[in-house]
């Protein structure tokens, strides 16, 4: 009975970032480009 609720849990739904077309969660800053609602919030630098 304790584990009956586990079947109801779902993975977070992903949308498409309008700036870079990468998958991103809705209403959050895109982790690939750092944009949210057309504005740059984070500065993303290229890795090594």
Q: Could you estimate the helical fraction of the residues in percent?
A: under 10%
Number of extended strands = 4
Strand content: 15-25%
Oligomeric state: single chain
Structural class: mainly beta
- What is the residue-mean pLDDT, rounded to a whole number? 86
What is the global morphology?
elongated
Spatial extent as radius of gyration = 15 Å
State the separation between the terminal residues, measured CA to CA. Answer: 48 Å
Description:
This protein has 48 residues and is mainly beta. It has one domain. The protein contains no helices and four strands. The strands form two sheets. It has a two-stranded antiparallel ribbon with strand order 1-2. A two-stranded antiparallel sheet has the order 3-4. β3 and β4 form a beta hairpin. It is elongated and about 45 Å long. The relative contact order is 0.17. The mean pLDDT is 86.
């Amino acid at each position: 009975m304790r584990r009956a609720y586990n079947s109801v849990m779902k993975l977070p739904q992903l949308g498409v970032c309008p700036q870079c077309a990468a998958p991103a969660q809705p209403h959050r800053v895109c982790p690939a480009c750092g944009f949210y609602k057309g504005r740059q919030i984070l500065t993303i630098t290229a890795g090594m």
